[in-house]
DNA sequence: CTTGCTCCTACAGTGACTGTAGGATGCACA
DNA sequence: TGTGCATCCTACAGTCACTGTAGGAGCAAG
């Protein structure tokens, strides 16, 4: 009763994989060098040959990076997804922590936005000598970001 | 009619300057190496000696960094502030551009927050094999950040 | 056989610092 | 005058997640 849809198991060159996932060739090689992607098979000429499993894994990595997860977190998520019987509490914790980080960055950036908006509005478009923006930078007596700067 | 308050013109060691501005010693030396701070005088033993002018300049740099300005922008702001007769249009442009950058980053992070919140809420706290978070990372059919990822 | 695209390795560069090693200086106190 | 210790010095490697470059080799079509 085996179905007739023979899986093509199509091999992909690194360029094909790059196009299929939207990850640059150099980045794929970089992911291999840091162990995010396994070392693929090679042709006789030494070129990398990827499978569908590689494509799925790289998609996972890319999506996690798009969501801002750090490489170490992605490494852990990949390990976790290889153990489907375990509790997903750790997955939840990683995602929740990342969400908290994102929210903190938003909060800091909103303080920055407030301060910068005030600065820009104060500008009278005169000469540098009378510039309120530079005054603010020089004096900085009342800055919203005084305790705990942003540092991106 | 000269006033009696003789300016002390107090010299500062690098550690004093660090305490006065909240910038680490290593960072002060780094700013000197990239030309944000001028090379100070030295004692006979080779230690850096700073003046009040240095302190003011370093405060300016620190405040600008706290507000997220990049080093190149700060370099330009410093140059501008040395020419008080010029128009401050360029200062305004730098600050406005930076504000726009901050707002764009906020917008991107808010998309991220939406997506991450959805992911975390979908988690059923079961086993990894049923994890919705990992599903989202693997499939990623409907991601808000599909066009233009964050990359911090 | 040649053209031109794809791919290879190895390494340096990015930004804004931080950390470390190994040694010199300078000042207070005995 | 000695000694102990905080402060300071230079030089360089490490951080993060890539990106860019140099110099060459593989491979398919014309």
CATH architecture of the domain at 14-67 in chain A: Orthogonal Bundle
Task: Give the overall shape of chain A.
Answer: elongated
Q: Provide the helix percentage of chain A.
A: 55-70%
Biggest sheet features of chain A? 2 strands, antiparallel
In whole angstroms, the N-to-C terminal distance of chain A is 59 Å
Helix/strand order of chain A, N-terminal first: HHEEHHHH
List the quaternary state of the chains. homodimer
Per DSSP, the total helix count of chain A is 6
Q: Proportion of β residues of chain A? A: under 5%
Structural summary, described in words:
The structure is a homodimer of 152-residue chains. With 152 residues, chain A is an all-alpha fold. Chain A is 56% helix and 3% strand. A two-stranded antiparallel ribbon of chain A has the order 1-2. In chain A, a hairpin with a 5-residue loop joins strand 1 (41-42) and strand 2. At the A-B interface, helix 3, helix 4, helix 5 and helix 6 of A face helix 3, helix 4, helix 5 and helix 6 of B. The first copy, chain A, binds a DNA duplex (30 and 30 nucleotides) through residues 13-15, 24-27, 29-30, 34, 43-48, 65, 70-71, 151-152.
How would you summarize the topology of this molecule?
The structure is a homodimer of 152-residue chains.
Chain A lengths: L13 H8 L3 H9 L7 E2 L5 E2 L2 H15 L4 H11 L7 H34 L9 H8 L13
Antiparallel strand pairs in A: 1-2
Chain A binds a DNA duplex (30 and 30 nucleotides) through helix 2.
